[in-house]
Design brief:
The complex is a heterodimer.
Chain A: E1 10-20, H1 59-71, E2 75-76, E3 82-86, E4 96-100, E5 106-115, E6 118-131, E7 135-139, E8 150-154, E9 161-167, H2 174-191, E10 203-212, E11 221-226, H3 229-248, E12 256-261, E13 266-271, E14 282-283, H4 294-303, H5 308-319, H6 323-329, H7 333-345, H8 351-366, H9 380-391, H10 397-410, H11 414-420, H12 429-442, H13 444-451, H14 458-468, H15 475-486
Parallel strand pairs in A: 11-12
Antiparallel strand pairs in A: 1-9, 1-10, 2-5, 3-4, 3-14, 5-6, 6-9, 7-8, 10-11, 12-13
Helix pairs in contact in A: 2-3, 5-6, 6-8, 7-8, 7-9, 9-10, 12-14, 12-15, 14-15
Chain B: H1 9-17, H2 23-41, E1 44-47, H3 49-64, E2 76-80, H4 107-114, E3 118-123, H5 157-164, E4 170-175, H6 181-187, E5 190-193, E6 213-218, H7 221-231, E7 261-265, H8 275-290, E8 294-298, H9 306-321, H10 339-350, H11 353-366, H12 372-395, E9 398-402, H13 417-421, H14 428-432, E10 436-444, E11 451-458, H15 463-477
Parallel strand pairs in B: 2-3, 2-4, 7-8, 7-9
Antiparallel strand pairs in B: 1-3, 4-6, 5-6, 5-10, 9-11, 10-11
The chains are: A alpha+beta, B alpha/beta.
Amino acid sequence: MNPTEAPDLVTTIGLEVHVELKTNTKMFCGCPVGFGGEPNSRVCPVCLGHPGTLPTMNEKAVEYTTKIAMALGCDIAPRSVFHRKNYFYPDMPKNYQISQYDLPVGERGSLEVEVDGEFYTVGITRAHLEEDTGKSLHIGGGGRIHDADYSLEDFNRAGTPLVEIVSEPDITSPAVARAYATELRSILEYLGVSDVRMEEGSMRVDANISVAPPGERGKKVEVKNMNSLRSVFRALEYEEKRQREVLRSGGSVTQSTRHWDEKAGRTQELRTKEEAFDYRYFPEPDLVPLEPAVEWLRQLREEQPELPIERAKRYQRDLGLSSYDAGVLRSTKALGDLFEQALAAAKKADAKQVSNWVTNDLMSLLAAVPEGTKNPPLTGSNLAELVDMVAGGDLSKSQAQQVLQKTLETGRRPREIADESGIKQVSDEGALEAAIDAVLAANPDVAERLRSGDNKPFGFLMGEVMKATKGQGNPKVVSGLIRKKIS
Amino acid sequence: MTELWERTAADLASLVASKQVSAAEVAESCIARTNEVEGDVLSYLTLTPEAARAKAAGVDAAVAAGEPLGPLAGVPMALKDIICTEGIRSTAASKILDTYIPPYSATVAQRLYDAGGVLLGKTNLDEFAMGSSTENSAYQVTRNPWDLSKVPGGSSGGSAAAVAAGQAPFSIGTDTGGSIRQPAALCGVVGLKPTYGLVPRYGLIAFASSLDQAGPITRDVRDAALVLGAIAGLDPKDSTSLPGPVPDYMGALDKGVEGLKIGVVKEISGEGVNPAVQTRFREAVQILEKLGAQVGEVSLPTFGYGIDIYYLIAPAEASSNLARFDGVRYGLRIDGADVENMNRNSRAAGFGPEVKRRIMLGTYSLSSGYYDAYYLKAQKARTLIARDFARAYEQFDLLVSPSAPTTAFGIGEITDPLTMYLSDICTVPSSLAGAAAISVPAGLSADDGLPVGIQFMAKPLDETTMLSAAYAFEQELGLLPKPPLWSPS
């Protein structure tokens, strides 16, 4: 078939996201939850699956899962049940995973995402709670379980609470997929329920993608090993293109699981047939069903924070901020909170001014601070003080930048820092006039050129005056005075 | 003169507390008695005399210091080897756990330790509690103290035999479909299966999680009440354990049976039960009537489906529960070309034939395409059984039946697994209903002179009514004569 004659092809993507919850202890025992550490240092008889041990439910994990399901607009099950998913794998201590099957915590939700000013609604099939496995390290051979000389098992992660969020196949492009994963990560961060660090595996994204003519069903390809939002986009873009080319050249896509190779920038086939796994699900007899009290659910609903997309809309609608600024401010809960606290405390500066300081100067300074935007080392009142000082003419913009840097480093109040280091802006005309007179007197030729209408040396004069005032002269006042003097 | 090892747990506890004897003397008496008959009975898989002596010394020190004592202070005991005991090998009578030493103790074990119990050792059982004769132990066949050529029943055969042989005044068994009550009946002792959830399961090596319950095996009903009081009650480590205060079981013993409505289960009192057992059972019912109980017949139409339902549900849960025995973290490991083959080799060598049979059975009934027809249907049928029981309890305070269809059978006599499964025909239905039940000796069979048991079944959490009826019955009938082994000729 001639490629140009091919009918339009439609891309269909569904995402399956696993999120490790940031609870103090594991899902079914008292071991601490954490990342890394000495192998098998956070284990006990329960999470090692010793004979006779029983799981006991981590209530915080149930609460977090319920909060996630609520934030995604899911129906919260009045009765939700845990099942055993049975299969053998050496990093799974009991050789079954306690998970959920037909009665998950939440079902039938949706998530709104924005791409280039367009809004898309992605359906959420379900959000359920399960336990994570341990980690295997296969030594020797090809580094895979079947040809390894031996395998090492680390059960530190085993039993960490894990929420699985499954989207409907509503996603129509890699860009929407990335926006969905980004928005979901942002919501989880707002809820404070997970570290959502894709590079550490606390948020893991798998995708199903198919390409087919409209109205037809394509062959589903599962893509794994996407370890960043960027790789979600790249992998799906690659896979979409690959499948389109296969179809356009008259071939057919094989239903398969493919591995994203970040370095090579391509997907590789892992296995073609869905292995006929039979997980023999059955209700976990060691746990009782979850039946959340209506009052508890009501309380959780009240505690729900404003969702990031709502926050962004509010900033644009009520504060007149641009879509870009609102997007930066909502990017983490802490940043938006900081902005709002500063705005509330500011006496002189308006929303636009406070926003500009956050989205420009603060953002570039925070880039150097680890986890800076998630946990900015700055209080709202200090930011307000700084922005007010600029708005009130006490500091120039560049002075304020210096002060902000020091405030971030020390946590001290901007006014204190400015006073102590003598950083201030001089706007008093009398004090500035002397300096200007001295500069003009020292540079009579330059003054003359200006008087004759040559505006070029004006900058030079400004610079000289600023030098003479040790950078403290208010540039606006200085330039006004110079013009007055030479006219 | 009565030896200390012949005494009941309640007697020993009071003798120790009142300083008439020391815990050390009691322990030595039981250790000596154990050694004397162990070669004949083979009740134990592991003996812990040194730990027993140390514990007894601790109790004696507490007595001397006038410290408050637990209700079982200084009382020797035996635990079924499916109950995890920290630092003491716990095998479930399986080769796959031959070297397994638990890093923790079961709640039941811990509660008994805290009550002052002195552990003598760990008793034999059918591997992973799967069996009705103790012949499925990977180590040894325990013999019935009444007749060493007969089985003690199972799966808690070692626990029942130890108590019947005078090795321990009480033991703990576990009951999934009758594994406390049937061996108690066959060994002429008392065996109590509590309501599901009354006694915590934490630390019982799981067979069928929705059915497993630990309970006491004792020489009389009073001891059953005493021990139950020490092990019952909510455990935060077991989500299925039930809240609420633990009743005063000892205090309820004297309430008698007068005015109690007792239903004789029609479906299990005639056909399928050995005539000599029936005779003793009918006499037992007459005793209850004589004591003032209002006895009537009650039909539980689904009773007869118990075994079928049980053999779909219990193996299904077992197939999943036993998946953890894979050679990776503990227990037997037989190497293989890769992990999968190591798993396979370890399990092939570690599990006995009955365990493998049930894993296969359970895997099948959970498999996709069969789940609805087998496991799910069995679960639905299970609710019908529970409904039948609930309906019967609307009319009756207690239900009674024989505890087992026969007396103890010969070692090696039953080779067909299905015939063996029928040994639990009397006990399985109340397990499926989650109800409490107790087997109490009801005399000796006229055919073979072996013990017969009567089973009292109570509604969930009504152990007090059950114990008071059983106690009144026992008082009226009198205790059985001692087995021949009691006084070696």
